[in-house]
Write a structure and sequence with these properties.
This protein is an alpha/beta fold. Helix content is about 35%, strand content about 25%. α1 runs parallel beside α8, α3 runs antiparallel to α4 and α3 packs parallel to α6. It is globular.
């Protein structure tokens, strides 16, 4: 049988594309070598959020005195938390399978390999069978990157995020190498469950891609709570459960050069999965990711790529949106849609959560500096004249005050000085992940402050901060 579309990889990009194209009446075959749902559902977003929720319940129960509640003998059962996580994942995976079957999409369980490529005649092999398709979508995702640090390979003390999610027992002490999103979410999980946590970050700051004013609030809180955070710290080598580091920050020279822990979690980024695609010899790549245009087309006619494998922004919601845009283009649906990369929200599930969309203050400054040049900046009186920062602690929200004792939080909005459009919104405070979508709307639609003022936010909700801050 000849398919209209063959999709390799059943993560958020692959299953979204499969459902959309099948719904439009096209013959679709989807290959997945592990479970449907990909990293996000099986070993990423969903399992971490399930465990983090369990940890938060425990943490809240043991810190409830400030709300007038005392609970004695509060305990947790990590194996039970893991069991619940597995049930959540299993149900969601089954749901995806059902949805695809409802649309009569052909699901093939196995590792697919591209056998040969001709525009509009692509052969794929899986489990010894050959499948022919007119179009190919590569949605093979990414895997944890293992940096070339001596002593890291085959070290039984070293975990990646998948190992950490699978473990049914907690370490007493953990070193987390990489203070990015994965690193800080696991730091949260382990810290809330009483594990001694040290985070080692090579850059001068944790979460280096986020607004640093927001990040500094998290860092201060975590350090006060006992999480050790070593920035500007390089891991030189590992010997068993020992980590040898060097320091480039003069303020941290007291850091011991050897640290040890029961486990060492390495979370220093992810790399695109390219196995099975060797036959696509002319596929254009950049920095390990497949190069795509605004409709996710690669340089090879009829070959598309979506999600982490493009190395663009490794987020599940970006992958699924890319898939929607890509299938829309493939089906020639008018009007053609594009992805608003300038309005991609992101959340870090620390406690408190961080949620943001649009440009950070660091990016706004770099943008206007480049646009205006040295002469323009001097004439205007500095880069600060091109943008305004509107910010408030979250405590301006009554609901936040009622539910977040001892927290201040922050909502920071960056606005263009001239036309008053919203350039970016950065927040820390629970539950900002649940209303950052309102800020995404503003950035996506290019709303001005006065347009935002016309939006009514329900009272009392923490989301009102987006109105208060204007
Ligand atoms: P990341 O890029 O977010 O962070 C990696 C960190 O490791 C960086 O801060 C980097 O400076 C640091 N680093 C790199 N090499 C190092 C070294 N040798 N020693 C010490 N530090 C080092 O990557 P990640 O945290 O592994 O996450 C991978 C991807 O998954 C990211 O794109 C992330 O956005 C995504 N993700 C998203 C979520 C979410 O949306 N909540 C959750 C988890 C992962």
């Amino acid at each position: 049988m000849r398919y209209f579309l063959a999709i390799i990889g059943g993560g958020p990009a692959g299953y979204t594309a499969a459902e959309k194209a099948s719904k439009a009446g096209k013959e679709v075959v989807l290959f997945e070598q592990n479970a449907l749902g990909g990293t996000c559902l099986n070993v990423g977003c969903i399992p971490t959020k399930s465990l983090l929720y369990g940890a938060k319940q425990y943490y809240n129960a043991t810190h409830a005195q400030k709300y007038g509640v005392t609970a004695e003998n509060v305990a947790f059962d990590y194996a039970a938390m893991q069991k619940r996580k597995t049930i959540v994942v299993r149900k969601l995976v089954a749901g995806i399978k059902q949805r695809l079957q409802n649309e009569h999409c052909t699901l093939v369980s196995g590792a697919a390999t591209v056998l040969s490529y001709q525009p509009t005649a692509i052969s794929i092999q899986c489990n010894g069978e050959t499948y022919e398709a007119e179009n190919l979508m590569i949605c093979t995702g990414s895997t944890n990157f293992v940096p070339p640090i001596p002593g890291i390979k085959d070290n039984p003390h070293v975990w990646d995020s998948t190992d950490a999610l699978a473990a049914t027992e907690l370490p007493g002490k953990i070193i987390i190498v990489g203070g990015g999103v994965i690193g800080m979410e696991f730091a949260t999980l382990y810290h809330e469950l009483g594990v001694e946590v040290t985070v080692i970050e090579a850059m001068p700051t944790i979460l280096p891609n986020l607004d640093q004013e927001v990040v500094s609030i998290l860092k201060e809180k975590y350090q006060k709570a006992g999480v050790k955070i070593l920035t500007s710290t390089k891991v030189e080598r590992l010997e068993g459960n020992e980590v040898m580091v060097s320091q480039s920050n003069p303020n941290n020279l007291n850091t011991p050069s050897t640290l040890s822990a029961d486990k060492i979690l390495v979370s220093v980024g992810r790399r695109a999965n390219m196995q099975g695609l060797e036959a696509l010899t002319d596929l254009e790549m950049h920095r390990g990711g497949i190069v795509v245009d605004e409709f996710m087309k690669t340089n090879l006619p009829n070959v598309y790529a979506c999600g982490d494998v493009t190395g663009k922004i490794m987020l599940a919601h970006v992958a699924s949106r890319q898939a929607e845009v890509c299938v829309g283009r493939m089906l020639r649906q008018i009007p053609l849609q594009r992805i608003a990369y300038n309005a991609v929200p992101s959340v870090v599930y620390t406690n408190p959560e961080i949620a943001s969309v649009g440009l950070t203050e660091e990016q706004v400054r770099a943008f206007y500096t480049e646009m205006e040049g040295p002469a323009g900046l001097e004439k205007a009186g500095g880069v600060e004249t091109f943008y305004e920062v509107r910010k408030l602690p979250m405590t301006f929200s009554g609901r936040f005050m009622a539910e977040n004792d001892g927290e201040t939080g922050l909502c920071k909005m960056l606005v263009d000085s001239k036309n008053k459009t919203v350039l970016g919104v950065h927040m820390i405070g629970n539950p900002c992940s649940e209303f950052v979508a309102a800020a995404s709307f503003a950035v996506r639609m290019g709303y001005t402050v006065s347009e935002m003022e016309q939006v009514i936010f329900p009272h009392p909700t923490v989301s009102e901060i987006l109105h208060e801050v204007l």
